[in-house]
Design goal:
- The protein is an all-alpha fold and about 100 residues long.
- The chain has one domain.
- Helix content is about 50%, strand content about 0%.
- The protein contains 5 helices and no strands.
- The chain has helices at about 1-5, 10-20, 25-35, 40-50, 60-80.
- The longest helix has 18 residues, at about 60-80.
- The protein is extended, with a radius of gyration of 17 Å.
Length: about 100
């Protein structure tokens, strides 16, 4: 990329970066989330949303909403109150006990 290579960034480059709504963490984690053998039919229906998802965070994307809920729960379970206050997940997470 231009940034890593020390190249100059144009206004078009900046526009492209700012308009990019893809999620790299989703791209990394989704294949693993799809390998989980989910027994609950309701949760399995939600998991199916991730199949074929392009990892974009469109406002009307059910897959993005589901992934963000899962990601929030992962953060809560993994780090709980160990993170600095300014980066902690706020609010209630359904069915998750930190």
């Amino acid at each position: 990329s231009k940034i890593k290579g020390g190249g100059k960034i144009s206004t078009d480059d900046m526009t492209s970066m700012q308009m990019d709504n893809s999620s790299e963490i989703a791209r990394l984690l989704t294949p693993y989330l799809l390998k989980i053998d989910v027994k609950d039919p309701y949760v399995r229906e939600a998991q199916k949303l991730l199949e074929g998802w392009d990892y974009t965070q469109e406002p009307d994307s059910a897959a993005a909403a589901y992934f963000n809920g899962v990601w929030r729960n992962i953060l809560t379970l993994a780090f709980g109150q160990k993170l600095p206050k300014e980066v902690r997940v706020e609010g209630e997470c359904l069915n998750v006990e930190p």
